[in-house]
Amino acid sequence: MTNARIAVVGIHGHGEKHVQRALEPSGAGRARLCALVDPREPAEGHVGYGTGTPWFPTLGDLLSSPDPDLRPDVLVLSTPIPTHLPLAKAAMEAGIDVLLEKPTTASLAELTELVAISDRTGRLCQVGFQTFGSHALDAVTELVARGEIGDVVGYGAVGSWVRDAAYWARAPWAGRRRLDGRDVVDGVVTNPLAHAVATALRIGGVTRAEDVAWVDTDLYRANPIESDDTSSVRVTAADGTRYGFGLTLCAAERTDARVLVVGTQGEIELFYERDRLVLRSGRVTMDKTYGRTALLDDLLDVRASGDPGRRLLCDVRDTGAFMRVLEAVRTGPDPREVPDDVVTWVGEGDARHPVVRDVESWCERVARTQQTFSELGAPWT
Fold this sequence. Notes:
- The longest helix has 14 residues, at 108-121.
- The protein has a nine-stranded mixed β-sheet with strand order 16-15-14-13-7-12-11-10-17. The chain has a six-stranded parallel β-sheet with strand order 3-2-1-4-5-6, sandwiched between helices. A two-stranded antiparallel sheet has the order 8-9.
- A hairpin with a 3-residue loop joins strand 15 (276-281) and strand 16 (285-289).
- The protein starts with a strand and ends in a 5-residue tail after the last helix.
- The chain is built from eleven helices and 19 strands.
- By secondary structure, it is an alpha/beta fold.
- Helix 3 runs parallel beside helix 4.
- It has two domains: 4-130, Rossmann fold, CATH 3.40.50; 136-291 and 317-376, Dihydrodipicolinate Reductase, domain 2 (2-Layer Sandwich), CATH 3.30.360.10.
């Protein structure tokens, strides 16, 4: 299991980061990048350019290569959402372990099929919710278990980000609910701020599909897109615990996304992008930044251990709760348009973007009360 061969499929955009990450373990002899797969060959300026790594236009071209040195042990998939299931299926059925970018699949039914493929083939499938590698998550769980904030009243997450016209023009599937008859579900809840949803659920111990009793969605859009860019979601867990998500890509400025755990005697904030944990209670205040285990390293470690009982940090099965949320977004009504009288457009050309008035404060209220925008009476509802 040493010196594992890694191939990256989808090497541009976010995929270039995966190429860089795949190059890093090679110095320690743990793994080496054996192939790059993308319809577009890496050009000068790309991190994979000039490395001597063979390039293939499709996964089929790579898998049909007769050269055993090009046969990957691990495949990193950073491709459009509708391709996740077929590409991961092809890899696992070829005996290859997979690191799959989030969201896991385009529907809950596809997730069920992917889990079945993993079970049948015995291959590992790690999903790219990087926050699941944060050591801060276990710290939050321990603080809650010790009663540092009293009894938990609810969990939530706030994401106030900015995305401009160039973001929505980056790919044919960007901002789409469906494309060419296939589900895409590329909105604020399911893609850019998916980590906020998945991380809050993970901290509360809600990971499997059966851990979720109900999902309420309240979806809106200020941009001229199909999907949602400003949304509130409430998840009710099987044990009755409530999770509130206030998420927007139409803020006045980008701020750090946060997970909240609200208790009767205090609260915990996790700034998950930076692994920073802030505890405030009646008797103590703590502000600490933690380390993080990279998911590719974790996948390599689990492979090398040979221990069938050792679990991945973000096993495909542990994304079922998030996929229940995605399914509610996918099957729910199309997002409603935010009225013009609460939207201000800022910038020009590719930098143009909408700002929804006071959206940050409404997102905060959703996270703290686990109520939707409509229930709270937000002005655009």
